[in-house]
Amino acid sequence: MDKKEDTLLNGQFRFKLLPDGTLDKSKVFCVLCKGEFNNHRSSSSLTYHLKAKHPGVAATLDGGGLRQTTLQQFAVRGGPLTRVATNKITEAIACWVAKNCRPVNIVEDAGLRDVIREASGDSAYHLPARSTVMSRIETLYNNQKAIKQRLLEQAPYIALTCDHWTSASNANYLGATAHFIDDNWCLHSFALTVSKSTERHYAEACAQHIQAVTQEWNIEKKITTLGTDSARNLTAAARLLPYEHLPCTAHSLQRAITVSLADSGFDAVLTKCRKIVGHFKHSPANARELNQQQVAHKQKEESLIQDVPTRWNSTLHMITRIQQNKSPIEATLSQQNSKIPLLTEAELGKLKKLEELLEPCRYVTETLGGQHYISCSVVLPAFCHLFRVMEPSDDDTVNIVRFKKAFCEDLAKRKENSNLTWLKNATALDPRFKDLKCLPKSERGEVWSSLNNLLKEDRNAQIQGAQTTGEAPQKKRKMSIFLLASSDSDTDDEAESIQSTLDRYKSESKTDMDECPLQWWSKRRDSYPRLEQIARKYLSTPATTVPCERLFSLSGHIIQKKRATLSSSNVERLENGRRPAEAKLCI
């Protein structure tokens, strides 16, 4: 055997090692895939294996022997990408473009091409064309839409949230999200549409637009609640639709804060804070000097925050940041000989008290704004907590008392204007709050009576359904009706009344706040088959319209620039959530 064959294709194959330590030169194995082959003193079969299974390695061989590596082949040590790998990269690019709202023409960027070439080891790789990426995004979107359509078909009850807003390019859009609990007690929340509207946002037009969305997805008979903000046109549109209206709790809470701040005498100190923030926000030189002082005081370099009336909790964030940077701010203003008045100790104490009042409101707002857990049943307990926090004490200053009084009065009015019946039923159906301690004792009995009536309506609906479906023999039909009317358990022998079902549910131990009501009901759905259906209906409703607010945000922050660049034909495909094919296209 000559030296060329001894090398066995540059070390890509080796002789088989026998147990006694000797080499069996009639057998060789591939060092890449460990495949074993017969050695016939010819390398043609081995070369064929490399070309078929390891093309990257075979590219450096010529007729079974060594060939001098070209510069391009030297850069492509791993060989050219296979078709499967290329398709995966194209799919990943399409998901990235859609999910992160990247312009499609980014596939013409030489820098992106070089990055993928370096990462893949294929210096001959070429990015897909724009039309290819757009086609992949369309396919991803259609596939995910079909999945969502099947989920909606299986859902018995669906809650809807809607919101109108205007983009930076002055185009009007309607956003809508769907929320429901499936048979396995998993909560689903995703976007249905972000569609452009050209007509004026009168109540009738808004109602027609919302109705068109439900008809497009064929869910108009499954909608239970419609969540909107406090805009008059959407509130009026909700009255025109046959759905329960649930005003956004977060909007109500933030409006109560705004009203309370205006009526409590904090205007002077807040105006002073805004001037200090503006001094550093509007001047890069001032901001740079503040950062230098932050470093000198061994604090984190961070900019101050300006409060905005429409930005939730921004007043709290402003006064918190000012208090954290009290020393750097004073040092910077003193160094500049600025005429900006500094906050006095009395004013800083007033801000500290205000921060303590606003912090619970921030926590409640963020808690109720979640869309991946039950929130509707938390509204009344959260309000009860806020009313308790806002009770005046003997140590409160005049401003604090005025704030607390104004807050409680305004929030109480907004609470009465909300859908209290729906919120009370949802609270009772949450095992964490079913003791209804957030309600006066005089109102608790009404809630259980309401649930009793709901169970009766559900039973009657099932009986009527059994009477009107099919042409079964009369005896069998009567027997099925009897069983439906006489049992609320998973056994045919045990007869249990509606009232005893509620009593049994009420006697269950209340769960801890950290436990998930979805898991609780999932484990007991066979014990309460009818009550479980009602719980799915009420607990799936979100407490706020925050899901709609997030439709055009990435990582929770609205990106106005991207709104301006969205094409109206593709804006409906903006990303909502983590699934890439819910991602929509930015042109």
Can you walk through the features of this model?
This protein is α+β, with helices and mostly antiparallel strands and 587 residues long. The chain has helices spanning 3-6, 8-11, 44-53, 55-58, 71-75, 83-99, 110-120, 130-154, 203-216, 232-240, 249-263, 267-281, 284-296, 314-324, 326-336, 345-368, 379-389, 398-416, 420-428, 441-468, 474-486, 498-507, 517-524, 529-539, 546-549, 560-565, and strands spanning 13-17, 23-30, 36-38, 61-62, 65-66, 158-166, 172-181, 187-197, 223-228, 244-247, 553-554, 557-558. The protein folds into four domains: 7-59, no CATH class; 79-128, no CATH class; 139-248 and 544-577, Nucleotidyltransferase, domain 5 (2-Layer Sandwich); 253-418, no CATH class. Helix 13 packs across helix 15. The longest helix has 28 residues, at 441-468. The protein starts with a helix and ends in a 22-residue tail after the last helix.
